[in-house]
From TrEMBL:
<keyword id="KW-0902">Two-component regulatory system</keyword>
<feature type="modified residue" description="4-aspartylphosphate">
    <location>
        <position position="715"/>
    </location>
</feature>
<feature type="domain" description="Response regulatory">
    <location>
        <begin position="666"/>
        <end position="783"/>
    </location>
</feature>
<dbReference type="Pfam" id="PF02518">
    <property type="entry name" value="HATPase_c"/>
</dbReference>
<dbReference type="GO" id="GO:0000155">
    <property type="term" value="F:phosphorelay sensor kinase activity"/>
</dbReference>
<keyword id="KW-0812">Transmembrane</keyword>
<feature type="domain" description="Histidine kinase">
    <location>
        <begin position="424"/>
        <end position="642"/>
    </location>
</feature>
<keyword id="KW-0472">Membrane</keyword>
<keyword id="KW-1133">Transmembrane helix</keyword>
<dbReference type="Pfam" id="PF00512">
    <property type="entry name" value="HisKA"/>
</dbReference>
<dbReference type="InterPro" id="IPR011006">
    <property type="entry name" value="CheY-like_superfamily"/>
</dbReference>
<dbReference type="GO" id="GO:0005886">
    <property type="term" value="C:plasma membrane"/>
</dbReference>
<dbReference type="InterPro" id="IPR005467">
    <property type="entry name" value="His_kinase_dom"/>
</dbReference>
<dbReference type="InterPro" id="IPR036097">
    <property type="entry name" value="HisK_dim/P_sf"/>
</dbReference>
<feature type="transmembrane region" description="Helical">
    <location>
        <begin position="325"/>
        <end position="345"/>
    </location>
</feature>
<dbReference type="Pfam" id="PF00072">
    <property type="entry name" value="Response_reg"/>
</dbReference>
<feature type="transmembrane region" description="Helical">
    <location>
        <begin position="41"/>
        <end position="63"/>
    </location>
</feature>
Length: 785
């Protein structure tokens, strides 16, 4: 900073005026007096010249890079499509050969020896290939690599063994996976993945075609040939040295690859990200040798094999990058020279201001004794001393407020996103469960006498209910964590709770070969609580016991009083709990793992959910076990409540059959899931209802106007207008003879969804998958009255 030396007299005259001026100016910096650093001014001037050149260059190079990338991707994708067509052509040639053999009259005459000679002549055209004729029971009738007359195996039985073999360190299936059975059953050509051909001692691929007579499959022909044909096709098709190309089967195993690829025959292909259902696309990956790759893939419509074509990235951009570096070096040189010149000029013109700026930069207030002889600079120094302190305090307070606000906003956003994710997940899981459960009910009603069908239907229904319970448990854990679950407190008979839980789990226990007993004190104790949630707790404990108790075991549910507590115990003779896990068994996502035991499944949330529900009721839960192999006991203790006065039950209404109540009644089913709509309509028809189906909101509104149904089962997530809007339009639709009963049948099942349905005008809300009996009861109550 420049220093001026003055006489003492002059300083005594100017000092008071400067202090007065400083005292009369407010502490905050004055905008009119705020200085501009000359370095900053010169820098902006230079930036005005350099920046357009730099930005223009960057924009041009970015555009050029983008074009190079797009052109390379287009070339790769075109090559992938060409290779898919070429590989399909190779498979088609084999199928054509088999179809010629399938038309041979020697098959009709059963002349297998002559057929063997004929097929052997065909295989000589492709070295290493073989042809097999398979009967309708899977028995091989001829094999061109096995001399005629030698015994042949049953290929279907071999395929069911799922054996594998090691070939050059790679594990491959020992069979083509019952390829002939697939062709025989479907009547269409079938393709195998890469497998190890035992009779040729090397990897092979196979195609199979059915031999049909009078529209029925009588035999199946298999052509097996080495992947070398496809290997040669890829090698001859790819002429650019750095381009890597490969054919991958449906199991992700490399079938063929060119010399540039790091993978070889039988290797597991490097995983890539593809769009579900897409027949082609682009990807980025890293090869086995660590090379970054840019590639394209194409999927065969015929056999599902994937062609991958890639090249090192960004190797194709080398010329562009070399040009970019040259331009940037030139601009950087000009910029550095300009900065040096600006620095020299600023030091000559503004040294005092730079020293003052340095004081501020290092957080050191300008020393009061420094006298520059320039009133404006001295005044600025004093203002900076005063303002620095105030600014530091203000910035600190603002930072703390901003951090707190951001953290709060992030927490709210995370909670909202988690709720939305769980609700959407539940909806997407419940939607496909609905037609599955309805179909199971249709099977039960159509074929009740077939034990195999009934067993399969029972399995489907149990698994649907199990998955539905998992979804409900996930949502309940979220609600409890966020404090959004509400209990309907009333006197509850714990004996009835235990009986309801035993009834709900009885079928699962019987299916698992377990004895389920209940020991309920008389009279049973009462507690204040939510009967549904308490039943859920006992059901969760019983389901847990069923999972971890071997067949032939015993489960006991006990309900008793102990002092001022009501106690529910679930005891099992299962695998028990280790001492290390007893204190963690109620934590979220924690499970006791038992090697070789089938109970090692689930999400690990049932016991955690049970503990939190019990705690919401003011109770406690604990687990007891003598160790692994000694069973376990789960004990719930709740505060006792007084039993309510017995009420005279209302007279039961006279029951009427479902067919009688539904006779002549019309129901409109609206769902964009066609399977869900059709199966539900079939079920209603079997109960005597007349049905119609619509798959979007507009069609539903028109159908109500034209058909005047008695009830409408309406999905919410429709493709054009949602179910709430459909409901509102029906309620306000003029000219209707009567308003139908509107029932929301949807995968959205939270309390907010039920409230929204009620506000829109629905008469009832049911969450998918709906129990058929519950649906019939709701229809009977609301439509049949």
């Amino acid at each position: 900073m420049r220093r001026s030396f003055h006489s003492p007299g002059r300083r005594s005259q100017s000092g008071p005026r400067l202090l007065y001026a400083a005292a009369s100016i407010p502490a905050p910096p004055m905008p009119l007096l705020k200085p501009r650093n000359l370095n900053h001014v010169l820098g902006r001037l230079l930036a005005a010249v350099i920046a357009p050149l730099l930005l223009g260059t960057l924009a041009l190079l970015t555009w050029q890079t983008s074009q190079e990338n797009r052109l390379a991707q287009t070339r790769l994708l075109a090559l992938a499509h060409a290779l898919v067509q070429a590989s399909d052509a190779e498979f088609d040639r084999g199928i054509a050969q088999l179809q010629v053999l399938a038309a041979s009259p020697m098959i009709d005459e059963g002349d297998w020896q002559q057929m063997h000679r004929f097929a052997s002549e065909v295989t000589r055209k492709v070295p290493g290939s073989l042809i097999v004729l398979v009967g309708p029971d899977g028995q091989a009738l001829l094999n061109t690599v096995v001399p005629w007359g030698q015994p042949l195996p049953n290929l279907w039985k071999l395929g069911e063994q799922h054996k594998e073999a090691l070939w050059e360190g790679r594990s491959l299936p020992l069979s083509s996976g019952n390829l002939s059975r697939q062709a025989f059953d479907t009547g269409q050509p079938a393709y195998s993945d890469l497998y190890y051909g035992v009779q040729v001692n090397r990897p092979a691929l196979s195609v199979s075609v059915p031999v049909q007579r009078d529209g029925r499959s009588r035999y199946a022909l298999i052509l097996s040939y080495p992947p070398a044909v496809l290997q040669e096709m890829i090698r001859s098709s790819v002429t650019v040295p750095e381009v890597r190309a490969g054919l991958v089967d449906r199991r992700g195993v490399v079938v063929a690859a060119n010399g540039a690829a790091a993978a070889r025959l039988g290797d597991k292909a490097v995983p890539i990200t593809t769009r579900p259902g897409a027949l082609h696309g682009l990807y980025r990956a890293t090869s086995r040798d660590g090379t970054p790759l840019m590639g394209a893939y194409a999927v065969s419509r015929k056999n599902g094999f994937i062609v991958r074509v890639s090249q090192p990235h960004p190797g194709h951009l080398f010329p562009t990058r070399l040009t970019s570096l040259a331009w940037l070096a030139l601009l950087l040189t000009a910029f550095v020279a300009s900065v040096v010149l600006a620095g020299l000029l600023s030091r000559r013109l503004a040294r005092p201001l730079r020293e003052l700026g340095e004081d501020v930069r290092v957080g050191r207030p300008p020393p009061p004794e420094r006298d520059t002889g320039i009133a404006e600079i001295d005044l600025l120094a004093q203002a900076l001393r005063d303002g620095a302190q105030a600014e530091r305090q203000r910035v600190q307070e603002q930072t703390l407020r901003t951090v707190a606000q951001n953290q709060e906003a992030l927490l709210r956003q995370a909670d909202r996103q988690k709720d939305e994710f769980l609700a959407t997940l539940a909806h997407e899981l419940r939607n496909p469960l609905a037609p599955i459960r309805t179909s199971a009910e249709l099977i039960r009603r159509r074929a009740p006498a077939d034990p195999v069908v009934e067993r399969a239907r029972s399995i489907i229904e149990r698994q649907v209910l199990h998955l539905s319970r998992l979804v409900d448990d996930l949502l309940d854990v979220s609600r409890i964590t966020l404090g959004r679950i509400h209990l309907r407190q009333e006197p509850v008979n714990l004996g009835e709770v235990a009986a309801a839980a035993v009834d709900a789990v009885g079928d699962a226990a019987a299916q698992a070969g377990l004895v389920l007993e209940q020991d309920i004190a008389a009279p049973p104790p009462f507690v204040n609580g939510d009967a549904t949630r308490l039943t859920q707790c006992v059901v969760n404990l019983l389901n847990n016991a069923v999972k971890f108790t071997p067949r032939g075991g015993r489960l006991v549910v006990r309900v008793m009083r102990q002092g001022t507590q009501a106690v529910v115990e679930v005891q099992d003779s299962g695998v028990g709990v280790s001492a290390d896990n007893l204190h963690r068994i109620f934590e979220l996502f924690v499970q006791e793992r038992h090697s070789g035991h089938g109970g090692n499944t689930g999400l690990g949330i049932g016991l955690a959910l049970t503990r939190r529900l019990v705690e919401l009721h003011g109770g406690t839960i604990r687990a007891m076990s003598a160790g692994l192999g000694h069973g376990s006991t789960f004990r719930i203790e709740l505060p006792l409540a007084e039993a309510p006065q017995a009420a005279v039950p209302p007279a039961a209404p006279q029951a009427r059959g479902t067919q009688e109540k539904s006779a002549g009644l019309q129901v409109l089913v609206v769902d964009d899931n066609r399977d869900a709509a059709d199966t539900l309509a079939d079920l209603l028809g079997m109960h005597g209802y007349g049905t119609a189906v619509a798959h979007d909101g507009q069609s539903a509104v028109r159908a109500v106007q034209e058909r005047a149904p008695d009830a409408v089962l309406l999905d919410i997530g429709l493709p054009d207008i949602d179910g709430y809007e459909v409901c509102r339009r029906i309620r306000t639709q003029p000219g209707l003879k009567r308003q139908p009963v509107l029932i929301a049948v949807t995968g959205w099942g939270q309390q907010s969804d039920q409230d929204a349905a009620q506000a829109a005008g629905f008469d009832a809300h049911m969450t998918k998958p709906v129990a058929p009996q519950a649906l019939m009861e709701v229809l009977g109550e609301r439509v049949g009255r």
